[in-house]
Design brief:
The chain is of the alpha+beta class. A 4-stranded antiparallel β-sheet has the order 2-3-1-4, with helices on one face. It has 10 helices and 4 strands; from the N terminus they run H-H-H-H-H-H-H-H-E-H-E-E-H-E.
Length: 288
């Protein structure tokens, strides 16, 4: 019980610190740079530029229909945790960060770059806490659900690309999209570096006596699948099961939590992968 409370307390601290850093990056760097680096926050920044409505409130408003879709078509647990994270982030941004945090007024390129780095740190901590900021993540999952042959990375690129193109017309210059790409690139690299050392995905090999329970949680909570293989311990000669599962970088912390919660005695090996081909990832085809 104490261990569980300690772990949840750690996740709460990661979440709150991640939200604060994420909101500071949005307010202090991305907003004054006049870029919209994709996702719900990008849409909120565009609306803010046109109407001057609070960015946090608009981020929440943009996420509401996506969260409803996630509730019905993805995981309800995913929808609830994302809703809580989005609501907290929106509240902190409008009530705490925007009134108190100064903004960077330097070079626009550096502003975009710093924004991507700071937001990337915040998002990485939020991912490590076992949740997401919604927006592109939800749309990416929904697109991938509709078109299983489309990789999640390609789906996210499509969603963010649309926001970047629209930003050219809203901000009135093509630099908005170019600097938005700088922010997105820096953000992605920082997230990869903190969570995963820069790799795209991880394949987890789990030796467990509760494979069905873990597989069920993976399917329900992560919207992924797994492969179960019968095996035998070389030393104990006891029958056991190998569970193979490949997940995205943002899902890996949650996968570890699932395995620990279901079978604390499980043995897991995580292998970093530079490319994943097949259903749910990049399409497998001849010639690349």
């Amino acid at each position: 019980m104490r261990t569980m409370l300690k772990k949840e307390g750690k996740n709460l601290v990661l979440l709150l610190v991640g939200i604060l850093i994420y909101d500071i990056g949005t307010h202090a760097f991305v907003e004054p740079a006049q870029v919209a680096p994709g996702g719900a926050i990008g849409v909120a920044l565009l609306v803010n530029h046109l109407t001057n409505l609070p960015i946090g409130m608009m981020t929440m408003a943009t996420n509401i229909p996506l969260l409803i879709l996630a509730w019905f078509y993805l995981s309800r647990r995913f929808a609830v945790t994302t809703a809580v994270t989005t609501a907290l982030s929106s509240l902190v941004l409008d009530v705490l960060v925007a009134p108190l945090c100064p903004v960077y007024t330097g070079d626009r390129f550096l502003c975009s770059l710093y924004g991507g780095v700071v937001i990337g740190v915040g998002m990485a901590l939020i991912f490590l806490a076992g949740t997401t900021t919604g927006g592109s993540d939800i749309l990416g999952y929904l697109l991938q659900k509709k078109r299983p042959q489309m990789s999640i990375g390609r789906a996210l690129l499509l969603v963010d690309g649309i926001v970047l193109v629209v930003s050219i017309f809203v901000f009135g210059n093509i630099d908005a999209a170019l600097f938005g790409l700088v922010t997105l690139f820096a953000q992605t690299k920082v997230i990869d570096g903190i969570i995963y050392g820069g790799e795209v995905s991880t394949m987890a090999t789990v030796v467990t006596k509760k494979p069905e329970a873990i597989a069920e949680r993976v399917i329900v909570d992560l919207d992924r699948s797994a492969t179960l293989l019968k095996a035998q311990g070389a030393y104990s000669k006891e029958d056991t099961t190998l569970l193979l599962c490949t997940v995205r970088k943002s899902q890996f912390p949650r996968l570890k939590r699932i395995i620990y919660e279901v079978d604390p005695d499980a043995f897991m090996m995580a292998t970093e992968t530079s490319e994943v081909l097949g259903f749910g990832f990049k399409e497998l085809k001849e010639g690349g």
